[in-house]
Amino acid sequence: MTDESGSLLQGTAAPDEGGSGSREEPGATRRLRGPRRPRFRFSPVRLIAYVVLAVLVLAGAAAVTGWRPSIPNPFAERTIDRSSPAVLRSLEDLSEYHAGSAHLEVVVDLEDDSRWIPSALRGERTLFVGVGSVDAVVDFGALGEDAVVVSADRRAVTISLPAPTLSEPHLDLDKSYVVARQRGALDRVGGLFGGQSNDSELYKVASAKIGEAAQTDGQVIELAKTNTTAMLRGLLGALGFTDVTVNYATDPR
Question: Which of 53, 110, 136, 154 could be cross-linked to 100 through a Cys-Cys bond (beta carbons 3.0 to 4.6 Å apart)?
Answer without folding.
Answer: 136
